[in-house]
Amino acid sequence: MKIAVASDHAGLDLKEIIKEKLLKEGYDVLDCGTRTPKSVDYPVFGLAGARSVAEGKADFALLFCGTGLGMTIMANKVPGIRAVNSQCLYTAGLARSHNDANVLCLGGRVVGPDLAWEIVRTFLTTPFSGGRHQRRVNLIRKQDGCLGS
Fold first, then answer.
1. What is the rounded CA–CA span in Å between residue 33 and residue 8?
2. How many CB atoms are located within 10 Å of the residue 10 CB?
3. What is the dihedral of CA 118, 72, 44, 106, to 10 degrees?
4. What is the set of active-site residues?
């Protein structure tokens, strides 16, 4: 499974910690930046990470900024992306099982590394339930133009 990661300066440390853990677990990681603590604009990197999923270059993306909120807003501008911000295992699991979320956004100033890793693991290992949830995801995809009318 290929996972894209991207961050701004505020999420860089957490991105690097999670990236290292992903590599140790055998995931293929595509790093979309930033690679420096110098102040950068989160939309640039959020867009790169989200596009990697929308274009089929990655299965999922993990995006990191100070709160995860800015990255979530940016990622959801990309057709085909269902990005969520999560601070707990419960919402990370439901985002996958009910919403078929394909991008997870985390805040480097909000979630510690240990909890962040558990959230990421939950997100990546929880399957989409389908069923009644597929109909709802299809309504979202239709709005994105990803499904015909």
1. 8
2. 20
3. -20
4. 65, 98
Q: Which residues pair with 10 in a beta bridge?
A: none
The pLDDT of residue 149 is above 60: no
Q: Which superfamily does 2-144 belong to?
A: Sugar-phosphate isomerase, RpiB/LacA/LacB (3.40.1400.10)
For residue 25, give Cα distances in angstroms to 12, 55, 86.
20, 24, 21
The overall pTM is greater than 0.90? yes
Of 66, 58, 77, 24, which Cα lies nearest the Cα of 41?
66
- Residue 125: burial class (beta carbons within 10 Å; 0-12, 13-18, 19+): exposed
Residues for the chain: how many in total? 149
Phi/psi at 104 (5° precision): -115, 130
Q: Mind listing the pLDDT tens digit for each residue in 59-113?
A: 999 999 999 999 999 999 999 999 999 999 999 999 999 999 999 999 999 999 9
Two tokens at 108? Answer: 């480097």
The rounded distance, in Å, linking the Cα atoms of 57 and 114 is 27
